[in-house]
Amino acid sequence: MTDENLSSHLAELDLSPSEEIAANANGTEALYAEADADYEAFWARQARERLTWSTDFGTTLDWSEAPFAKWFVGGELNVAYNCVDRHVEAGNGDRVAIHFEGEGGDSRTITYAQLQDDVCRTANALTELGVTKGDRVAVYLPMIPEAIATLLACARLGAPHSVIFGGFSAEALRTRIDDAEAKVVVTADGQWRRGKAAPLKPAVDAALDGGSTSVEKVLVVRRTESEIAWTEGRDIWWHDLVDGQSTEHTPEPMESEHPLFILYTSGTTGKPKGIFHTTAGYLAQAAYTNSVVHDVHPESDVYWCTADIGWVTGHSYIVYGPLANGATQVLYEGTPDTPHQGRWWEIIEKYKVSILYTAPTAIRTFMKWGDDIPAKFDLSSIRVLGSVGEPINPEAWLWYRKNIGGEKAPIVDTWWQTETGGIMISPLPGVTTLEPGSAQRPIPGISAEILDDDGKPFTEADKVGYLVLTKPWPGMLRGIWGDPERYKETYWSRFGEKYYFAGDGAKYDQKGNIWLLGRVDDVMNVSGHRLSTAEIESALVSHPAVAEAAVVGASDETTGQAVVAFAILRSEYVERADEEGEGADLVKELRDHVAKEIGPIAKPRSIMIVAELPKTRSGKIMRRLLKDVAENREVGDVTTLADSSVMNLISQGMKAPS
Ligand code: WTA
């Protein structure tokens, strides 16, 4: 579709709130007014009405040590009790909590009563392994019900979990385990990916090889029955330890600010940040947003969030939000094209999924595969669609609405971050007139502004600035694990201590909608996964052949951005690279090296061997120019370069056949 066709098509659409959804929507226009009048009182009401407290809180927000927030001070609750037990006590034990679908077609239906048994058994097992309140537990698991049981068992014991995405390498696992000083690692022998058993446990072995100072036990779920190495005394099978445990376990109330989990995310330096979240505020926001943004009605909806539990979306919108609300959800282990490209639509048809929450990169992939694939399935159960992870381009938005949403389901384009804990900017189904491509408006209770370079808020349309959050919110990160200074510096210094700097560019349109424009820092967004240029650069430089490296995120039709690297070789390797065929071998070796150091998701799409990198006179690499090259654009202003001829060489090299 040309841009012109697209805008005339958009102009013809009626995107006002559907009456059918509005009649029964959890979100209302009145919530905005209520929150605007007194946002603390608004959040206090959400927290009291949505959660079950062992002890009510006194102070809603203590901001006296800003930017370190304390929410719902004095209150106590248990997260696992809120996500499981109370639903059973309320008579909903027979309601399905999880429809699990394995990649190979094996499935399990787990009711809330069964989930309660699973969580209690797992909590008892972790206790037997010596886990007590405050201990950290690292989790490196596939998308299987045991992952949910593990997270909830940790929450039940007050042992913060640190989930590491299964696509991360042993090296990445090691730094994360060490940083959090995890006492126990929960993993599986492997996971099913594209019909094959992909190993997991070997990465844990490698990460702990050479001795970890903190890890005492490794609990291993048998999933793929692959042959794995075994360390006697350290490794324990899940079925040996967990299955025989008692299903009785008394949840202990935790203070509102007790740490719930740590989740590592890429920042602008090479070292990943351990973002940490606490108990009550996080849960209140996860439950509230899942209710008003996804419009979950637990008694009638079947909800499906396709994220991996290794990312924040999986934490907030598979585990904590939907379960706190008592929802029924689908959990799918595998890839969308196994055994065929209609797998997701088959799952929607099978379980009558009514709410689907996924990422633009997946939608663009389905667009490429063709409209005829979803058309073969009955998707009439769908009533709300969601998007997260990166801006959704209007074309993908329209495709999603038409082919998956039956031309009528509202799409909630939800902007948020690992750091924010829950959704921050999004339309509300049944309330908002939609604007394809825009996340539109802060949800009730959240305040955002756009600042110019001088830190002044503005509201003019089409002027590009920086998104900031102007008031604390319950689900906000409480810091970076072990590094309070870095927390202040990263988020609360760019525009002074009044503003949380999100790291995203943004603008308003003529109607006052907010459009998110991508990161303004050295963080890339590849298929909705955050990757830091510095982290990949340091992985490249850790290879003996590489003297210096620069990495940029280049726009990519399917993945949003792709990793493009430029590397200067050490002199001993320059000759080798020049020889016939050797250069290609070396590039492959370097790509694999990045996969080994960080994980396959970080593998550069291309690596260009260069003689020089463009630098300013003060020695700073000008990534902007490299990005021009990577995106096949005319190279921009080079006048600040120390040596302006460098860019000619690089551009010529890029155009040469590889
Ligand atoms: C980007 C994922 C535009 C943004 C929940 C943010 C988005 C980063 C959107 C956080 C959206 C996420 N529109 N951009 N709807 N959602 N982003 O921590 O750049 O993995 O800063 O959290 O993703 O990524 P994270």
Automatic annotation (TrEMBL):
Keywords: Acetylation, ATP-binding, Ligase, Magnesium, Metal-binding, Nucleotide-binding. One of its GO terms (biological process) is acetyl-CoA biosynthetic process from acetate. One of its GO terms (molecular function) is acetate-CoA ligase activity. Mg(2+) binds at V541, H543, V546. Residues 90-481 form the AMP-dependent synthetase/ligase domain. The modification N6-acetyllysine is found at K620. It catalyses: acetate + ATP + CoA = acetyl-CoA + AMP + diphosphate. ATP binds at G389, E390, P391, D413, T414, W415, W416, Q417, T418, D504, R519, R530. One of its GO terms (cellular component) is cytosol. Residues 29-83 form the Acetyl-coenzyme A synthetase N-terminal domain. Its cofactor is Mg(2+). Belongs to the ATP-dependent AMP-binding enzyme family. HAMAP family: Ac_CoA_synth. This is Acetyl-coenzyme A synthetase.
